Amino acid sequence: MVAKRIIPCLDIKDGRTVKGVNFVNLRDAGDPVELGKLYSDQGADELVFLDITATHEKRKTLSALARDIARNLNIPFTIGGGISALEDAHVLLESGADKISVNSAAVKNPSLIDELALHFGSQFVVTAIDAKWTGSDWIVFLSGGRVATERRLMEWAKECQERGAGEILFTSMDHDGTKAGFACEALAALSDQLDIPIIASGGAGSKAHFLEVFTEGKADAALAASIFHFHEIGIPDLKQYLGTHGVPIRL
User: Is 11 annotated as catalytic?
Assistant: First the structure.
């Protein structure tokens, strides 16, 4: 059985790790490279770094960050933010990133996923999807959760898979930063209807939430930020807990 993955996420703004609630009210959480090394040493399976203010002008800054991360870590890491062309991805992969994450640019130009998968391979392409429950369906949002689209979560996730995405990183905006648990029902639906791995994001607040997301939510990996950044849950303790509850995990 394939081991489930624990993935700390570091949102980057102006070179610093930040964390908020429901995508707003950001507070400083430390140096991204130092935090990344700490999580690597603690046994994290992978890391995700997302530059939430990335622009084309910041590509050099982001590639420098990728090189710094690669020099200090020995586990795979994904990096994203402002990737809207093959050249953006090429720079980051050349700088040491193991995977790249695309979000808003892929919704605006879905063929970007095809191009990335064709040139680099599906295993390098993670499609991040931010969505909010509207009472009748999950609606996809862009620009850090500020702009609603007409896209529905399930249809867009299926299209991403068809276009060559290797993984889906689904963040529930309703659960983000609340520490009230993951969106397990939506995650299970994604897992049932897709063949590629699903990374759960948004809502981690306790060890039990991780157990729920791997069992009820059927997620392949669980991503969290503040509970790791502010030392509320230790990765070794979390993995030990999951292992004792029958979750296949790398200890």
Answer: yes
Q: Which residues contact 241 (CB under 8 A, 6 or more apart)?
A: 207, 210, 211
Of 63, 128, 57, residue with least CA distance to 89: 63
Q: Pick from 70, 39, 6, 3: which is nearest to 223 by CA?
A: 6
Cβ proximity of 31 and 59 under 8 Å = no
The tens digit of pLDDT for each residue in 97-123 reads: 999 999 999 999 999 999 999 999 999
Q: Among residues 45, 51, 130, 176, which one is catalytic? A: 130
Amino acid at 183: A
* Token digits of residue 245: 């509850």
Establish how many alpha carbons lie within 13 A of residue 69's alpha carbon, considering only the half-sphere containing its beta carbon.
32
Identified catalytic residue from 11, 45, 51, 88: 11
Look up the pTM and report it: 0.93
